[in-house]
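Colleagues,

For the teaching module next term, I've prepared a clean inverse folding example: a structure given as tokens, and then the sequence designed for it. I'd like students to try predicting residues themselves before seeing the answer, so please don't circulate the second half yet.
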């Protein structure tokens, strides 16, 4: 039987681009998102046969919801060969504003707890089989903090550390843990950004490189590689120089500004 990939946040952007790339490679698709109607419309428009995909309604911020979607996938389609925890949110925050504390909580619920809950239903089955890949979508924003973007940067830093921890735990089992850190990708999450986005990529170009990295079993990959170089250089800067460099940089839109 053809390989199976489970992808969250598959209704648009990176998730949808990954779904299409895996379909092109002959994989069966298990697609999870809140907006299931959009996935169905996309699948029909692309001519996907009903035997090639299944759609699961899930909100990754709701642990029971995403865990139930994973269990439904196991029952309906079997154990995936790859699980890609892609769903995430990105909203600017101001710690002095009370409502933004709720935004921070929701960001971590989605980007971190939701990622772990996405993996949870599949770990035991993959370990028993002795193969599979759990893929966490981080971000170069997780490498160094950006003013006004604390929730997203912190959550993506947590994704990187969590996946590294999980990789060590699962190393003896044959299950790979892959961390993919996108730079700037042209998606609904980035189009409202008020700052420059160097090396901006189209989703399909990102999906191609991510697919190859996952297939190669890379433990960690920044896409595009140029953003990885930039991030490492910024990480090396002393704090006073880094702070001065970012002084006056436009901030991410807060929830009330969207």
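(Answer key — instructors only)
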């Amino acid at each position: 039987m053809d390989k199976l990939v489970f992808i969250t946040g598959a209704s648009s952007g990176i998730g949808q681009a990954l779904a299409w790339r895996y379909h092109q490679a002959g994989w069966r698709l298990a697609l999870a998102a809140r907006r299931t109607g959009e996935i169905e419309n996309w699948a029909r428009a692309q001519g996907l046969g009903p035997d090639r995909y299944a759609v699961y309604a899930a909100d990754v911020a709701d642990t029971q919801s995403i865990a139930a979607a994973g269990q439904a996938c196991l029952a309906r389609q079997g154990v995936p060969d790859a699980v890609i925890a892609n769903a995430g949110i990105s909203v600017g925050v101001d710690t002095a504003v009370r409502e933004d504390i709720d935004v921070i909580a929701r960001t971590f619920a989605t980007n971190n707890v939701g990622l772990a809950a996405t993996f949870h239903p599949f770990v035991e089955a993959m370990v028993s089989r002795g193969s599979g890949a759990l893929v966490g979508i981080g971000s170069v924003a997780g490498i160094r903090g950006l003013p006004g973007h604390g929730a997203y940067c912190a959550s993506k830093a947590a994704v990187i550390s969590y996946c590294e921890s999980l990789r060590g735990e699962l190393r003896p089992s044959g299950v790979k843990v892959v961390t993919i850190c996108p730079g700037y990708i042209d998606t609904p999450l980035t189009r409202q950004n008020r700052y420059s986005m160097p090396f901006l990529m189209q989703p399909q170009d990102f999906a191609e490189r991510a697919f190859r990295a996952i297939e190669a079993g890379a433990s960690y990959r920044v896409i595009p590689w140029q953003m990885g170089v930039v991030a490492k250089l910024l990480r090396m800067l002393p704090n006073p120089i880094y702070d001065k460099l970012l002084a006056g940089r436009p901030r991410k839109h807060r929830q009330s500004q969207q």
